[in-house]
């Protein structure tokens, strides 16, 4: 259940940013989470509510943009969609794919006042 | 059209659905103005930012003191502690050694390590399922490992969560025993992707179990093509010398020549 630890880290970032950028309440939080990031979106949602209790983001809405996993196939010289790290290229079957997106786990922006 | 911000989405009451349906970059300014006094601020920060900062401090400490830090990860029961006990006994006269033991509860493993005479700090994660950068920073303050040596961090037995948390180590070393399934890498791909070396342990039990080493290695390499693999038995000592040789190759040189590479945290040792 590392998602709780991740959300506790998010809360700290929000608290720091509130000091630095002068806001007192978080209304919405947008996260970007890749399919290969090792984070379960449902667990993040659950943990977010737990971790934000009593904080400036207690009532904040959580918006998650899920980033599809894509990889570069050096044989086909093109980007392909994958679902897991060990997927082969859907065109040539090659296994030497290099992941180009889907590992994101970022706070993008927040709506505050 | 959304009646709140006029953004074109159908639902103003549950905008979440429309946000999720957008691809990368679709987050910007969705339904801003739900509160007229509100503003949007960009943060663009990794969700593991805090952990990564602690890990970076630990990594600087290791580089400065020429310490090779190895993060040992595995399922519970793969034999990490037995492997460590034998390793410590065999290498203790060669270079300074120290251990950070991570377990959810108890200091049983630390007691086993302590019985070898090697310095050890036990970290109990309590409700947590992994060690993090901050815990290792605190443990280093207590342990003060000697310069030029090897620090083993025995992580909590768990192939999921520890994959995400950088501790500042030079390498994650994943231990897999032959009493587990040979397809474990496919089941826990994040961990095998994060590791630079896989130790296949308990090979003395191969005659008694159905375990296909070649298949195991090909599964691991389908996740991480350049993962190094060594097969050994901490019980009989078979294959241990190759593991020691791997560590010798990975240790930063006394003149600091390899420090820059070490700091990248991903340097292959071959």
How does this structure look, described?
The complex is a heterodimer of chains A (113) and B (270). Chain A has 113 residues and is α+β, with helices and mostly antiparallel strands. Chain A is built from 2 helices and 6 strands. Chain A starts with a helix and ends with a strand. Chain B has 270 residues and is α/β, with parallel strands linked by helices. Chain B has a 7-stranded parallel beta sheet with strand order 4-3-5-2-6-7-8, sandwiched between helices. Chain B is globular and about 70 Å long. Chain B has helices at residues 16-21, 49-64, 80-91, 108-114, 133-143, 184-187, 189-194, 213-223, 240-250, 259-264, and strands at residues 39-46, 68-74, 97-103, 119-124, 150-154, 171-177, 197-201, 228-231. Chain B folds into 2 domains: 1-44, no CATH class; 51-264, P-loop containing nucleotide triphosphate hydrolases (Rossmann fold, 3-Layer(aba) Sandwich). In chain B, helix 4 links the parallel strand 3 (97-103) and strand 4 (119-124). Chains A and B meet through helix 1, strand 1, strand 2 and strand 6 of A and helix 1, strand 1, helix 2, helix 7 and helix 8 of B. Strand 6 (105-112) of chain A pairs antiparallel with strand 1 (39-46) of chain B.
Short key terms for the protein model shown above:
heterodimer, A: 113 residues, alpha+beta, hypothetical protein PF0899 fold, 3-stranded mixed beta sheet, 6 strands, 32% strand, B: 270 residues, alpha/beta, Rossmann fold, 2 domains, disordered N terminus, disordered C terminus
User: Radius of gyration of chain B, Cα only, in angstroms?
Assistant: 23 Å
Counting DSSP E segments of at least 2 residues, the number of strands of chain B comes to 8
Name of the CATH superfamily of the largest domain in chain B: P-loop containing nucleotide triphosphate hydrolases
Sketch the major β-sheet of chain B. 7 strands, parallel
Strand order of the largest sheet of chain A: 2-1-6
- Tally of helical runs of chain B: 10
Residue share in helix of chain A = 25-40%
Named CATH architecture of the domain at 2-68 and 102-112 in chain A: 2-Layer Sandwich
Mean pLDDT of chain A: 94
Distance between the termini of chain A: 31 Å
Order of helices and strands of chain A, N to C?
Answer: HEHEEEEE
The computed structural class of chain B is alpha/beta
């Amino acid at each position: 259940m590392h998602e709780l630890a991740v959300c506790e880290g998010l809360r700290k970032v929000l608290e720091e940013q509130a000091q630095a950028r002068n806001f007192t309440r978080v209304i919405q939080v947008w996260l970007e989470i890749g399919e290969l990031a090792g984070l379960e979106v449902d667990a993040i949602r659950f943990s977010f509510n737990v971790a934000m209790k009593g904080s400036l983001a207690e009532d904040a809405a959580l918006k998650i943009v899920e980033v599809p996993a894509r990889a570069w196939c050096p044989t086909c010289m093109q980007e392909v969609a994958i679902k897991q790290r060990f997927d082969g290229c859907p065109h040539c079957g090659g296994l030497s794919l290099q992941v180009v997106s889907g590992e994101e786990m970022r706070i993008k922006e927040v709506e505050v006042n | 059209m959304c009646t709140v911000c006029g953004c074109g989405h159908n639902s103003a009451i549950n905008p979440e659905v429309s946000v999720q349906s957008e691809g990368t970059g679709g987050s910007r300014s969705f339904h801003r103005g739900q509160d007229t006094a509100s503003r949007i601020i960009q943060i663009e920060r990794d969700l593991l930012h805090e952990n990564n900062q602690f890990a970076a401090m630990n990594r600087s400490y290791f580089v400065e003191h020429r310490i090779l830090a190895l993060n040992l990860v595995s399922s519970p029961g793969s034999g990490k502690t037995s492997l460590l006990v034998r390793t410590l006994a065999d290498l203790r006269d060669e270079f300074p050694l120290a251990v950070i033991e991570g377990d959810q509860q108890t200091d049983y493993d630390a007691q086993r390590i302590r019985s070898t005479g090697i310095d050890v700090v036990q970290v109990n994660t309590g409700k947590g399922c992994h060690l993090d950068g901050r815990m290792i920073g605190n443990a280093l303050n207590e342990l003060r490992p000697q310069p030029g040596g090897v620090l083993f961090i025995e992580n909590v037995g768990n192939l999921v969560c520890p994959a995400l948390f950088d501790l500042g180590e030079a390498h994650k070393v994943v231990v897999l025993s032959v009493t587990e399934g040979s397809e474990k890498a496919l089941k826990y791909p994040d961990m095998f992707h994060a590791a630079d070396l896989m130790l296949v342990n308990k090979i003395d039990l191969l005659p008694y179990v159905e375990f296909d080493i070649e298949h195991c290695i090909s599964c691991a390499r389908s996740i991480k093509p350049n993962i190094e693999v060594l097969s050994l038995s901490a019980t009989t000592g078979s294959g241990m010398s190759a593991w020691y040789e791997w560590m010798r190759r990975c240790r930063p040189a006394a003149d600091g020549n390899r420090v820059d590479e070490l700091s990248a945290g991903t340097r292959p040792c071959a």
